[in-house]
Amino acid sequence: MRHATEHADVPPAELDTALRGGPFHAALRAAIAARGLPLQRVQHHLSRHGVKVGVTSLSYWQQGARRPQRPESLRAVRALEEILQLPDESLIRLLAESDERAAIGRPSGRSYRSLIKASDVLERLRADLGLSRDGGLHTLGHHERIRIGARRELAGREAHHIVQAHRDGVDRFVAVHHGDPGCSPCDMQVRALENCRTGRARWDRDTGVLATELLFDTRLRSGDTFLFRYGIEDGTAGVCREYLHRFGFPGGQYVLQVRFDAATLPARCHRFTQHSAAAPRSGRQQLSVSGPHHCVHVVEPRIRPGIVGIAWDWD
Q1: Phi, then psi, of 136 in degrees rounded to 5
Q2: Which of these, 8, 85, 89, 247, is most buried using a 10 Å CB contact count?
Q3: Does domain 112-313 have CATH number 2.102.10?
Q4: Strand 253-260, strand 137-148: pairing
C-alpha cells in the first residue's frame, strides 16, 4: 500500500503558509506532499545522509503524534530540510517555536524570536560602528564571570579575551551585552579593566542589547595576539534565570562561570547548548553550586558556532 503523500498535490502557497506559521507536523506533511515522496523514499534519502529514522517515526512526526527530540532525530530534521528543498532551519525553527508555546505558563528562557530580533539589532549596531561581524579577530580564549545579585538580578559580568588578528590594522573590539527583559541598556556601565579603553556605545532598549567599542590604542598586524579585559555593571532588570552566549565563529576555549549571592541560592542549575537560535536546546547537564563560592561553571575546550549557557530554577 502506497502512502497517501506520494501523489498528493500541495500548492506552493499552501506549503509557504505552513512553513511560516507551522505547526511543525503540518509543515513537514505539506513539504513531503509537495515533493510527492512516499515515506519509504524519504527514509532512503535520510539513510544516504547517514541518518537512520524509521518510516513509523516519520509518519508519527507528520501526524503530530510525536516530535523529534533526540540528537539523531534533530539531525534528521536538518537533513529533511535539504532533502525536501526547504530553506535552512525552516523546520528546526518550527520545532523551537512549538517548544516556546509548550512553555507558556512556566518560567522559560530566551525565545527564538527574541534571540533572532537581538541578532538583527546587533548587526545594525555593529554596522553603525563601522565594524564587521568578527572585527578581524579570532578568539583563542574567552572567560566570562557572571554575578547574580541578592535580588536575583543579573548584577554584572566580567570578560577576559585572548584574541588573534587575522588581518592588519585591527585596533578595537565590540563588547556586546544582552540584558534580561525589562533592562535599561542606557543605564548600564562598561568598565575597561585591562589593555583597552571604552569608545562609542550604541544600544537598543526594546531588545536590551548594548554594544560598546573597546579601543586597544595599538594596531595589530595579522597573526598578532592580544589580551584584554572589561566589565559591565547591569542590575537594571528583574529576576534572572539564565545566561547564554552566542558564537558565530569557531574558536578556542570558552569558560562560563555564574556566581550567586550567598543570601539567595538557586534550587537547581544545568548547562545547555543549542546549534542555533532556531534549534531546540540539548546537551542538558545538571550542575552543583559549590559550597564556599556559590558558583557553577562550564568549560568548552573548543568554541563551535551556536549557543552555550547555564540556566537555573529559584525556589
Answers
A1: 80, 15
A2: 89
A3: no
A4: parallel
